[in-house]
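Exam prep: given the inputs below (a chain plus flavin-adenine dinucleotide), describe the expected output before reading on.
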Amino acid sequence: MGGFNMTTIDVSRRSFIKGGLAGAMGIVAAGSLAACAGSGSKKESSADSTKEQITVEETREADVVVVGLGASGLMAALAAADKGANVIAIDSAQNFEGTTNTHTTGAWMIGSKEQLKHADYLTEQEAFEWIEPGTHYQSNGKVLRNIIRSSAQAANYLIDGGVQLMYAFEGSTKDTPMLSRGGHIYLEEGEGRANNFRDMCAQRSNLETIFNCKAQQLVTDDSGNVTGIICKNGKTETQINAKAVIMCSGGFLANPDMIKELFAGAVLVNQGMGQNDGSGIKMCQEAGAQIGKNFSVSINEMGAANLKASPAYSWAPGRGTNPCFYLPLFGNILVDKRGERFMNEQQMCELTMFSGEPLLRDPYYYTIVDQAYVDRVKSSPVFDFLTAGTKQNMGPALLMGFQDVTLSDFDKSIDEAISQGWAAKADSIEELAKKFDLTDLPETIKAYNDACSKGYDDEFFLPADYMHAINQGPYYVFEYNPGAWVTLGGIKTDGFCRAVNADNDVIKGLYVAGVDGDFWSVPYFQGGSCNGFSLASGVLAGNTASADI
Ligand SMILES: Cc1cc2nc3c(=O)[nH]c(=O)nc-3n(C[C@H](O)[C@H](O)[C@H](O)COP(=O)(O)OP(=O)(O)OC[C@H]3O[C@@H](n4cnc5c(N)ncnc54)[C@H](O)[C@@H]3O)c2cc1C
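Solution:
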């Protein structure tokens, strides 16, 4: 089989989106708020004087503390516990359902017990030789190798833990696309998967999970070693002393300041969970850890977004989004705030999830369509504008999501976008340009229309299949911010997820995994590896920490 089972993925993708929205909007079921048992004694934290002084009300002891119970944190906790460590794992979410890892669609993994049943299974060598050149050798090679080696243990935790999976690699050969060869697709989203995760933890008596508990500081000793965390457990400030802290806090998508800083002024609409606020990365930095050098995003392959829109999110068809957010996905011309084109728009259709980098260069980007286009998408599926060749190249999410989508209510959607301030209509391109100060737009449209007449785009080489002249007024402009699922990149580590300082020396007691870790590339490269590598890096960090202590 050449690709994922479309029907199954479709269902799963839609359901995770629902869950993602619920999570992002804070609509999560209230779970029981486990309380830390502890001494109850009050004392000042041992964090150094540059840090906020917190009055600690409880003190606890563990071998390993894991911050975050998402993909990497869950795996880190299981792996460390299975090596015999006493583990306390905390998460600021209310329960497992409030973590992203119960809402993802699929994980790209290597060497699971199900993969090994197949003669042509994806080997560690193939995976390494695929990722290294694919990411232009940007990855931390040592940690990448070790993550690939840890991937089977992570996948087998899911399989043995009863997580319902569909295997995209069934019937695959060496020629099957890599996405399928590593594809472990979740069949259950939300509660069912959360129950599996809860049971997996409950089966280990040396592993305690605490939700609604947010880490606030790392505790360091006089030598700079990390010796624990201070966390807010409900209303109680608790210090957990530990020989190892594994940071798995899931990046900084919910932190606009960090996005601006680390993506050179970018604005991203957060389509993930609100808890990924970069606090873990900041804590590691405060403890002397060196920030990594690669930062990228997994862009929302279902469309654009706009902070002014209500809701700001762009979900798959049928999820209540404004369909005007789909327009950049289908090869429509894209311009920056100067009104100039900046990329080959084909990429948005065929490699949507990986096209985040060009979109991050400006806080806003815009698409322009004319009345002829609007009339066409009202009467026949947007998909019909694509040629057979283009459809074949489309990203699987677009293929699955948009096949039957006709924008019959498009006028209403446009009116809504205009009323929310992220779209405008005008009788001429000159007038349209003024609506968002797109100074060079008239010139850009003229050049583009000339290219359409020639059938050849000598600026960005957009294939003729996608080109359609913009010459029948009135005209429409839509303003977008990129929407993303997650940020990738955080703290620099050695090859085993141990955080390092500015001298590249290991900070004793501090480990980092998941999207906070140091093995991501710009751009994000392999679909599903975000989840797969997060899971595997958690295993690696858990194994390493428990061996070190
Ligand atoms: C809706 C959605 C769907 C996705 N689907 C896919 C997919 O199908 N495939 C894929 O490869 N990737 C997918 N992703 C990307 C996804 O984020 C990663 O796959 C994966 O969850 C990252 O793992 P992580 O452990 O690094 O972070 P997370 O799984 O986000 O876990 C981090 C955890 O840390 C907690 N936390 C943060 N700060 C603190 C703190 N200070 N104290 C305590 N706890 C804290 C958070 O609550 C969170 O639960 C999706 C993302 C979203 C939002």
